[in-house]
UniProtKB/TrEMBL annotation:
PANTHER family to which the protein is assigned, alphabetical: CELL DIVISION CYCLE 16,23,27, CELL DIVISION CYCLE PROTEIN 27 HOMOLOG
Record's signal peptide: 1-23
Xref: Pfam families: TPR_15, TPR_16, TPR_19, TPR_8
TPR repeat residue numbers: 565-598
Name of the protein described by the UniProt record: Uncharacterized protein
Species of provenance: Pelistega indica
Keywords: Signal, TPR repeat
Disordered as annotated region, ranges: 362-387
Keyword Manganese part of the UniProt annotation: no
Membrane-crossing segments per the record: none
Length: 646
């Protein structure tokens, strides 16, 4: 059982045990100092069970009592599989006790053992068919166990017995059950089969149909049903949102045009407007996105959240100046709102105290406090809770850090992080702080921040150490970086990313054997990770050995990622080593067309020079050095080829 499922199951189990003890009229005091139901003695369990059965004394069965104790003991011991097995056996052999039946159903469902889950819920449903939760579980498990015909009958019966004014609600209930099925194509077919006799034509029906089609990757069907929903209700925001989500590929222009026109007729749809603006940003239509958000701001001048969205657009457009300016306005307004909320809290406390003393409420509030509230609460329609304001402020400060970092204003970015409350700082923000310090050449302080982060967030220790290794590697402190990477691997021994980073560091230091060993581990554990094949293939090509294996490795890397300029460069350099100069030139020119990196330029210069094209070799080196005047590979290649004298 994975961790998330186990936690959910444990919480369910704990609640079941508590409920069972309370239902059995067992008082907490009777348990003694250990008052958890999980610490009850065998005798206390037996007494509790017998009290609960006081009206059925002739029905008390020692085997039944023992079975219950076995289930609860297994739960306490964390042996959930055995507890579920015993719970299922109890349900089949004795009677349906809801919390016991639910243990079996929940465990087997969470483990994907649907037949056992169905067996448990079937008994439970037969005992309590009017229990909506049990009925829903029963229907869901009919679907998961392949009993589609029976499920369709139940779903249709739900619709047949529903009152006329409730049939749409029942349709939605049925859809909610089907949406939980793991097989989305099956869910779509079951929705179609269960609704076929009823000839639904409502907006709700077409939208539900579209949703099932979307989940089953039937986009054409979803598109068709969405527009049928619009035909029945031309002002449906839900339908327009689906058009926007489906407006991809060849339907992009049509979908975007439809939503634009829809918003002209229905301008007050805030969610749709913001979604449309986001899509415009994805299309790099930043001016149009700003124009759309300006319309929203004119209609809602006190909606300060729109400033945040505007800042995001400027950020996506890499317009750092405007992004920072607009975001600063949002931050200032949010800080003022939080201050006003703090004043409100103080006033409420004063009012409570003064009312108890029969003091006039008006005199309990100072004029300054009253003015503060009025200044920051003019828009009653946009009242936001303090916790939401805190979250908004946190998001805004994080965005401001990114903006300032892009502007290389590292000190100001650090100041923004320092303004975030300590209890709001997570491991990622502390790593961001360390990166900023490293950018300011304060690697020592950066490492101190990371050390404190490993203490505050021990569950993230491996990732933090990996990050520290990256900082040390980038700053040239390779000895320390090796230590950090190896410590990170102790925390995350299966991490292909850390192994890859350490291998690249070893290669840079000229330690080929440990690099090769790690890269082979990466390839074995992550066979679809192109970088692993490329790195090992390039090591061989660059050092001019194992060239046959290098070609196999780089061929596989290109199969996985055919347009990666670094892999194309590696293959080109390998062909150069193999003296296939025309092939080498083709690979390297393709790589250079994609990304004009110094190492690709240097490799091309070597190939051109070997082919007797010294002018082309000199031109590409000169161009590279004009953009990267201090690059060591370009400088070494230029010096070695000595083209100025040829």
């Amino acid at each position: 059982m994975n961790i998330a499922k186990r936690r959910l199951f444990i919480s369910l189990v704990a609640s079941f045990l508590v409920e069972s003890v309370l239902a059995q009229n067992t008082t907490v005091e009777s348990v003694g100092e250990n008052n958890s139901p999980m610490h009850m003695t065998v005798n206390e369990h037996a007494h509790s069970f017998s009290v609960n059965k006081k009206n059925q004394e002739n029905d008390v069965d020692p085997d039944k009592i023992q079975s219950i104790l076995t289930i609860e003991t297994a739960l306490v011991d964390g042996n959930y599989a055995y507890a579920a097995q015993e719970a299922l056996n109890f349900t089949k052999s004795y009677e349906v006790v809801p919390w016991i039946a639910e243990i079996a159903t929940s465990y087997y469902y969470s483990e994907g053992k649907y037949e056992q889950a169905y067996e448990a819920v079937r008994y439970w449903y037969k005992e309590d068919p009017d229990n909506e939760e049990v009925a829903n579980l029963y229907m869901l498990l009919l679907g998961e166990t392949g009993k589609e015909d029976e499920l369709v009958q139940v779903l249709q019966q739900n619709l047949k017995t529903a009152a006329k004014d409730k049939i749409e609600d029942k349709l939605s209930d049925n859809a909610a059950i089907l949406s939980e099925l793991k097989d989305k194509n099956k869910a779509l077919k079951l929705f179609e089969d269960s609704t076929k006799p009823f000839a639904f034509s409502s907006t709700n029906y077409h939208l539900l149909y579209a949703d099932f089609a979307i989940e089953a990757d039937k986009d054409d069907l979803a598109w068709q049903e969405t527009f049928k929903a619009i035909d029945t209700n031309p002002t449906s925001e839900d339908a327009a949102i689906r058009v926007l989500s489906l407006a991809q590929g060849p339907k992009r222009a049509q979908g975007m045009a439809f939503v634009k026109e829809f918003l002209k007729k229905n301008p007050d749809n805030r969610i749709l407007s913001l979604s449309y603006i986001n899509e415009l940003s994805k299309d790099n239509a930043y001016d149009e996105a700003i124009a759309e958000i300006s319309k929203l701001q004119k209609r809602n001048p006190k909606d300060s959240e729109l400033l945040y969205f505007q800042a995001l657009i400027h950020y996506d457009a890499q317009d750092w100046t405007h992004a920072r300016k607009v975001l600063s306005q949002f931050i200032d307004l949010t800080v003022k709102k939080l201050a006003a909320e703090k004043v409100k809290k103080q006033i409420n406390k004063k009012v409570t105290e003064k009312v108890n003393d029969d003091t006039n409420i008006d005199t309990a509030i100072s004029s300054e406090e009253s003015d503060s509230i009025k200044a920051n609460n003019g828009d009653s329609a946009n009242v936001t809770s303090p916790s939401s304001l805190e979250d908004s402020l946190l998001d805004a400060r994080k965005l401001m850090v990114s903006i300032l970092k892009a502007e290389k204003k590292y000190r100001l970015a650090l100041n923004q992080i320092d303004l975030i409350k300590a209890d709001k700082l997570d491991a990622n923000m502390l790593m961001e702080k360390a990166q900023l310090l490293a950018n300011l050449s304060d690697v020592r302080q950066a490492l101190s921040v990371l050390e404190n982060a490993t203490i505050a967030f021990p569950e993230s220790r491996g990732n933090i150490l990996w990050f520290g290794g990256n900082l040390l590697n980038e700053s040239g402190r390779t000895d320390q970086a090796v230590v950090y990477y190896n410590d990170a691997l102790k925390e995350l021994p299966e991490s292909a990313d850390i192994k890859y980073a350490l291998a690249m560091l070893y290669e840079k230091r000229g330690e080929v054997w440990p690099a090769e060993k790690l890269l082979r581990e990466v390839i074995k554990s992550e066979p679809n990770m192109a970088d692993g094949y490329n790195a090992l293939g390039y090591i061989y090509a660059d050092r001019n050995y194992n060239l046959e294996e290098a070609e196999q490795l780089l061929t596989e890397a290109l199969r996985i990622d055919a347009s990666n300029p670094y892999i194309l460069d590696s293959m080109g350099w390998l062909q150069y080593r193999l003296k296939n100069y025309d092939s080498a030139m083709q690979y390297l020119e393709r790589a250079y067309d994609i990304e004009q990196q110094p190492i690709i330029a240097a490799h091309l210069a070597d190939v051109y020079n070997t082919l007797g094209e010294q002018k082309r070799a000199k031109d590409i080196l000169d161009y590279g050095l004009s953009n990267y005047p201090s690059d060591p590979i370009l400088l070494e290649t230029s010096k070695r080829l000595n083209l100025d004298k040829k």
